[in-house]
Prior knowledge:
Two copies of one chain form a homodimer. The first copy, chain A, is of the alpha/beta class. Chain A folds into three domains: about 5-305, Rossmann fold; about 340-525, Thiamin diphosphate (ThDP)-binding fold, Pyr/PP domains (Rossmann fold), CATH 3.40.50.970; about 535-660, 3-Layer(aba) Sandwich (Rossmann fold). In chain A, about 40% of the residues lie in helices and about 15% in strands. Chain A is built from 24 helices and 20 strands. In chain A, helix 9 links the parallel strand 6 (about 215-220) and strand 7 (about 240-245). Chain A is elongated, with a radius of gyration of 27 Å. Chains A and B meet through helix 6, helix 7, helix 8, helix 14 and helix 16 of A and helix 6, helix 7, helix 8, helix 14 and helix 15 of B. Chains A, B: It catalyses: D-sedoheptulose 7-phosphate + D-glyceraldehyde 3-phosphate = aldehydo-D-ribose 5-phosphate + D-xylulose 5-phosphate. Chains A, B: Homodimer. Chains A, B: One of its GO terms (biological process) is pentose-phosphate shunt.
Amino acid sequence: MNTNIDSMSVNALRVLSADAVQKANSGHPGLPLGSAAVTYELWAKHMKHNPKNPQWANRDRFVLSAGHGSALLYSLLHMFGYGNLSIEEIKNFRQWGSLTPGHPEYKHTVGVEATTGPLGAGMAMSVGMAMAEAHLAAKFNKENYDVVDHYTYVLGGDGCMMEGISSEAFSLAGTLGLSKLIVFYDSNNISIEGSTDIAFTENVQKRFEAFGFQTLVVEDGNNLEEIGAAIEAAKADKTRPSMITVKTQIGFGCPAKQGKAAAHGEPLGADNVDDMKDCLGWPSKEPFFVPEEVYANYNAIVEKLAGEEEEWNKLFADYSAKYPEMKELWDQYYDENAAEKILDNEDFWTFSDKPDATRNISGALINKLKDLLPNFIGGSADLAPSNKTEMKGAGDFSKEDYAGRNLHFGVRELAMAAIGNGIALHGGLKAYVSTFFVFADYVKPMARLSALMGLPLTYVLTHDSIGVGEDGPTHEPIEQLAMLRAMPNFSVFRPADATETAVAWYYAVSNKTTPTALALTRQNLPKLAGASKEALKGGYVIEDSAKEVPDAILMASGSEVELAIRAKEELAKDGMDVRVVSMPCMDLYEKQSDEYKESVMPKAVRKRVAIEAGADFGWGKYVGLDGAYVTMKGFGASAPANILFEKFGFTVDNVVKTVKSL
Amino acid sequence: MNTNIDSMSVNALRVLSADAVQKANSGHPGLPLGSAAVTYELWAKHMKHNPKNPQWANRDRFVLSAGHGSALLYSLLHMFGYGNLSIEEIKNFRQWGSLTPGHPEYKHTVGVEATTGPLGAGMAMSVGMAMAEAHLAAKFNKENYDVVDHYTYVLGGDGCMMEGISSEAFSLAGTLGLSKLIVFYDSNNISIEGSTDIAFTENVQKRFEAFGFQTLVVEDGNNLEEIGAAIEAAKADKTRPSMITVKTQIGFGCPAKQGKAAAHGEPLGADNVDDMKDCLGWPSKEPFFVPEEVYANYNAIVEKLAGEEEEWNKLFADYSAKYPEMKELWDQYYDENAAEKILDNEDFWTFSDKPDATRNISGALINKLKDLLPNFIGGSADLAPSNKTEMKGAGDFSKEDYAGRNLHFGVRELAMAAIGNGIALHGGLKAYVSTFFVFADYVKPMARLSALMGLPLTYVLTHDSIGVGEDGPTHEPIEQLAMLRAMPNFSVFRPADATETAVAWYYAVSNKTTPTALALTRQNLPKLAGASKEALKGGYVIEDSAKEVPDAILMASGSEVELAIRAKEELAKDGMDVRVVSMPCMDLYEKQSDEYKESVMPKAVRKRVAIEAGADFGWGKYVGLDGAYVTMKGFGASAPANILFEKFGFTVDNVVKTVKSL
């Protein structure tokens, strides 16, 4: 029997993980068994955290990028006494209503810093967390008062390393010299299809050296001393992020499965779990049994950890006394309601009457928000001059100046979105990211995580239709509106003019639980007389019919609202009295009451035409079986934008003809 | 005046590119000016191609991954006399109906090997081309008869290198030792937001060394000899792919713009074009002027190039005579109609009556297709055991055995899709790629390129709904059906049983111009009595009402068709006579005649309920204003699948209640 308390404490994580997977008859024991030691060493002896206050602003962050290893994370959270993660929850692993779902879910389980599962995502989000830390430290720290000073740890496996998103994110992390980012690479040479040799023989360490990381190796992933020394070496590097390759054996401790692909994603089998307990010298075969002395060891660690926050609380109290203006600023940064008052800020809602592209209007609004929200931070994937996302005079976030608020992501859309999530997860900052709308495709996997986690990250997506023009079909969004609108808990605005653009931005920054995308034009649009804050309802009557029940309803978004209004005028000449509905945000419209929806689009009116320079997909809910569409039927083309709108039928004539055909 | 004919020939590419962009008043002169020399040296002196027969099977492939530099590619194609790319087309750069769209488009312009524009895509597609070459060479070459023996060249810039997709693809290329892949890295240190230093200081060469590439450097990107020597050194390496860093100056030759971000994506300005012509010693300022002797030089090269194909034609004729069975096999590989006869192959359409998961059924069909189509090749992003994509006994494609037909992509979904495109672009092979359906998000940007290029690549996407169960919301597709259905020229099948799965596969492999996705279940489904080849119409009546005009229509796809049928039976007990429509492929249903659609879903029937374990988005077109939905209202959860279906309302009771509520 193994009695060393550290070793027992490591094995407790293995036993709980294996038992949880076995009871659920579903899950991934391989990583928990292989990585139990590295996480115990980290959480018990190096990481600054206070399980009694999981929200402590200056805690070290830990992200399990290999989210399938959730059983390990839950075992850690349980043993360290986080939240209310009782042993019953461990027993309910992967069951309906439990706090222990198949992959870790942010906000669902106390102590989970990020939702992970899609491989590589956690890696990139951790870079965002480290950027947030660096920025806040640069903004708030004063001599002898490092009130923001914590590490970000992330653990991923071969899969995380193969995913392109990690290369994108770590290349940027190296460029930015994020020395407080420490990456654990759980290297076990096994993937689902077998040895990693079949698809992954690259020299990962050398790749990280190329990125500008310090690289370290732990030859024995069960040797706590060796692990501890590597962590301290990583912390000691003050100019580069560190990557620690930890050589482990997948399914360690389970004789029948260790080192094999079969250990990865299925229960070990009851007999194999028993064998594992024998092999580890565990004192009982009773499922979920952990000896009292092991709990006692964890409890003692937790008591010590609480002291770290106490020290920080004192530091922060002194800081607040000495720098009251900084304390005030701090409270502004952490005030989730700060943006609400923008609704009544006259300057924010004042625009020129001149036609302008919504991307330009957005650019002007971003520069207003820069002053209204000191914690507003963001940037583009190397398209700032086109996306109009630069905050003038706000500095560039760089290795030399982490206080800069303009982020330069490079041509890395997917990592950008994940980094945006990481910044939002960190807390204290309000972030936006930006690229061309067609590249919403690239950001989609991470936009989905924004939505799942309920992070109010803003996606500024310009060049929103065939209005792109000469760049042609590779750069012209068609199905992207449908793609994003179909996603739960994600709001897509396609504003028709300046007022609606301001509504979109107001919604985006004042919202607390939903990411927002703004689809913005490259080309100029007129300011519309009927546009108003009613746009906050997602869809509203922008030009009404004279009759209470109109002859027909034209519905449109963005650049096509103007076209709908012009068609209405033309139809009036023929005696048709139509209503124009502007639909800047279908997602919000869906949330309105049936009464409101009936008032905007009465069911009695069956002559309905949807006009949008995108796929018709999704409009059928409003068009019904008797209406028609003026939309794109296929991909775009390369030509000046005005030619494209004409060739693809976005003309008053065609809209009029379509209405009359009903 | 510069009279060296090579130098003049290089400058002709610069002049035409700059003039084209200037006349269009739109486009990207920076890369063409910087990379004119490397492409001229390659195309004129090292690349095996025959402009008189751009379809020659054994030609070297060239992909311009930095697709925004299209003006350079068009200038090359024009000067080398490809297709009908006249000087008029160059003058019509980026105009409606021209052969010279903003980014290169496959099938649109003769000689364009791949549609590019989304950065990094061409890099990854070139890896697919090199894999196709390696595989076909292993299959067909005989001693002294290397009938498949060509290089794949790809040129990309800093943006291509920053995108994660290129890391994914090149890591795999290194693992596979694809020595006939030669990558040009146009390194000019400039990105749109300015110096690459702001976001990209990594050591790119070192990264490629880590991947297992030979790395070479051309210090002067205008020195043809130096470029030529590097290309030959790259060719000489028989075990590793090569990466050649070519140091260039963006906008070279234009004094006002060279070396600046402003050279990248906007016209140089008429005066600057004139200055450039002075600077390059060009003999005339007349736009689009190229001296006769330069055309003569290109023509002479083209004559010589034609000889290479003649030699190969002789070789291939001898080979065909000596190995008639190989010639027969070759013809089978290149027969686009080969799959059509599967429609009448009884074995293909024969299934057990036992309930089974459609992923398993698909796995069995893949193993039938393996024998029916010798050129069938594919694999998964490290999920083959779950996706059921292994072709048993067909070998693993590896450095040691390029004849293997099972591809192992590693955990690299995005590159996998691009590689699939590259294989399809190469010709001779019929490819499929596979991952979990939720990771359709990751493949989307490249699936869009499949659709744009009209490549019949098949996406096998298993674990298609909350049927995923315990893995939880990160792994449960909700909006992915809508995302893919909304895309033009892309067919999404969600089969309800074995017959419909066979229909989906038959459609996928017999189709020539449309990519297909198969969304397949993890869980078992019964074989449905009403399922038939009618599914090829996308939507059809699978269980009819007794009345000609039913009381209501239930429409569903995949696993929910069975539920609809059971609800119909329950409703019959209450005297309601409903029709069940199975909708395995909305995209195909949309292509049917109005008459057919009216016969399936008569407009007179307004009581309509759509049932699908996904977002309702897109069903409104069939449900109309008076119907209802039994669909997912948000993300899924982690629990056993049967519990999830019940909790989220996919029960007979709930469907019945919903129908009755209308």
